[in-house]
Amino acid sequence: MESKWFSRDATPPQDDTTRSLTVTIAPVPADTKQRIADATQDLLDQAAVPGLPEARRQELLDQVILLNSPIARSIASRYRSKGVDSDDLEQVAYLGLVKAANGYRPSESTAFLAYAVPTIRGELKRYFRDCAWTVRPPRRVQEMQGSIAAAEPELTQKLGHLPTDRETAEALGTEPGEIAEATAVRACFSTLSLDAPGSGEGGASLMDTVADAEDGYDLVENVHTLTPAVADLDDRDRRILQLRFCHGYTQEEIGQELGVSQMQVSRLLRGILDRLREELTAPQRAD
């Protein structure tokens, strides 16, 4: 399966530990975890040889990434069903794997997976914290939600059922109230589209059930406000306003109706509007 990493529309920022790779991800070979770990360590040791050309080093690291890509996919799968596309999760997990391969130092005497797994999980948690929230809760709650998502699969397998808030709290060393609060924000990852079907019958969408803006109240308020100001105008000025704003006459048509020139209508209309503006913006006197 041909896959170009980080080739989606929103490309993650590049730094010294990330780069675009065009790779072929083959199915996981029928090999033991130990043999994969040994092969990975051998590749990393070769990449750490002093004076090795950069092109060769990158080639070795690419092999490390390909060899361990199923690990990244497996970790990403634990964060599914959270309102984020699976392909996006895998992209983020691969980014964490690339960072781990570039940042790993064989001299530290730590197994590669012991360094890579927390790095991948950290990258996924940062993605959820920074990018995946529709409604953003406090950071403390975000991080707790990520910890719950990572712990639930293991707890479910161990207990034989979905863990309760208390069981999850005991596993994470926190209070059940913290778990309940973090669990409650899971819906913040996604919102329903207005094109989604509504709850009623007839095929109506959610958009069809949203009330339209009511213009009637604004109209009543405008009429109530304008009435005393217009009442002070003479008959000709009120007739000009009626022709212009009620009947939609042009200034030329108003001039023909009143027997005056278009320029005179323009001056008259401007004067009327100025008087109304002054009347409406004048401070109201107390009774």
TrEMBL record:
Keywords in alphabetical order, please: DNA-binding, Sigma factor, Transcription, Transcription regulation
User: Its GO biological process terms?
Assistant: DNA-templated transcription initiation
Please tell me whether the keyword Protease is annotated for this protein: no
User: What GO terms are given for molecular function?
Assistant: DNA binding; sigma factor activity
Query: RNA polymerase sigma-70 region domain spans which residues?
Result: 68-133, 147-214, 230-278
Q: Which CDD domains match?
A: Sigma70_r4
Which SUPFAM superfamilies does the UniProt record give?
Sigma2 domain of RNA polymerase sigma factors, Sigma3 and sigma4 domains of RNA polymerase sigma factors
Protein name per the record: RNA polymerase, sigma 28 subunit, Sig B/F/G subfamily
